[in-house]
Amino acid sequence: MNRMTGLPPQFATVRLGTDMHLHVASTETFKRTTVAAFCRQPLAEETVAAVGLLPRVLRRGNSQWPTAMDLERELDGLYGTHLGTGVQKIGDTHLSWFVLNLPGDRYLDQPVFAKGIRILLQTMFSPVIEGEGLKKDYVEQEKQLQVGRIRSLINNKSSWAVFRCLQHMYQDDPFRHYELGTVEGVKALSAADLLRQHRRQTATAPIDFYVVGDVSLSEAQQALQEYTHIAGKAQEPVRTQVTSGTGESRTVVEEEVMGQGWIVLGFRTDVRYSAPERHAMSFLNGVLGGFVHSKLFLNVREKAGLAYQANSGYNANKGYLLAIAGIDPAKYQQALDIMLKQVDDLRRGNITAMEMDATRSRLLSRMRLTQDDAISRMMYHLTGNIEGSRATVQETLERIAAVSKEDVIAAAQRLRLDTIYFLKGVN
After folding, report:
1. Do domains 12-227 and 250-426 have the same CATH topology?
2. DSSP secondary structure string, 155-171?
3. pLDDT digits (tens, 9 = 90+) for 171-211
4. Residue 399 exposure: Cα atoms within 13 Å on the Cβ side
5. Fewer CB atoms < 10 Å away: N or C end of the chain?
6. Quick one: which of 205, 231, 237 has its CA closest to 40?
């Protein structure tokens, strides 16, 4: 813990290969050690399904432990070590991740850190190959599961409404793609497609290894040394495209068989993650709908009684803000008018001292809480690297503390309504 700031130690970074970096935060705070590897690729229509599926297939087994049972037995032998895989998108970057969670060596009779790293690397780089592709049974089984995951998105109506709003907002942008791909795209994949994607990913994708725990930089570097030759030539970094749009809004109404409706207001901004104004935009989101003291919650849900849920969310990576309300479909216009009024109030400066103080307190608390979780610490650091922001946690806390009412009003002027999306419930 840094006595000056009250914050845990930040990451020390070393370059391992052409486009491979290791970031280590040595700390005795956690009894377990978390290791994560992140592979970065552009979000693209032609690769989204393969990138989305590949980590799941790799988790089924590798050349040394070729079955899921073999792999689980090996992990269990390391005192219940857990290995997880998945994908997500950060702005225009499609991120594959592999996360290893294992007990700290100082609590054990026999150290497990180096052995755990070996399992992680085998999973990432040494898949089970069958003929001209990855093992066909694994691919086909994971394809079925992935199709189920994609189809399940529509069952959560609020998430589905947000997804559809963003698809309309970014219909000509790679950001429109779901990180798991489409049902059709996944079904079309072959075992050979997945092997080609694995080889392309291994050869060209920048890789960031993160370690949070009671491990030194030299220990982590030594454990990874065997694989530093893997990374291929350096790739041009993916920089998210952030645009404020045309300034013209559209209204989209789609129907689902359900008892309620969901309004999503999609606003674009020209504020990217690395811009100093990002903190004022986050503050604006907190005042508008980020917390229970916010305008949408109090005016749409509590006072007017129009919404089951009313909030907002700001995606600093892509530069958009969404205002969301779950309503009775018959009260659409009334709810829409009140939601838009809250945004207009922000532009006019109708912001109370209570709203400013409560938002500041919650944003500062949320930022500090990220330091209590290993994965959150990694994601904060990684996102900064991806989007070109090197601000430390302490610097971010200082910038949040310095945001003024005038800054929030200025941020509100940069909101441009792009899409009004209504998922209308019908009998």
Report:
1. yes
2. GSHHHHHHHHHHHHHTT
3. 999 999 999 999 999 999 999 999 999 999 998 899 999 99
4. 17
5. C
6. 205
CATH class of 250-426: alpha beta
Nearest to 367 by CA among 324, 410, 320, 399: 399
For the chain, the structural domain boundaries read 12-227, 250-426
* Bridge-based pairing state of the strands 416-426 and 250-257: parallel
Whether the predicted model's global pTM rises above the 0.90 cut: yes
State CA 142 to chain mean position distance. Answer: 22
**Mean pLDDT, all residues of the chain:** 93
pLDDT of residue 4: 43
Contact 274, 387 (CB under 8 A): yes
The CATH code of the domain at 12-227 is 3.30.830.10
The neighbour count for residue 258, using CB atoms within 10 Å, is 14
Number of residues written out for the chain: 427
Quick check: 225 pLDDT over 90?
no
Task: Name every residue whose Cβ is closer than 8 Å to that of residue 110 and which is 6 or more positions away in sequence.
Answer: none
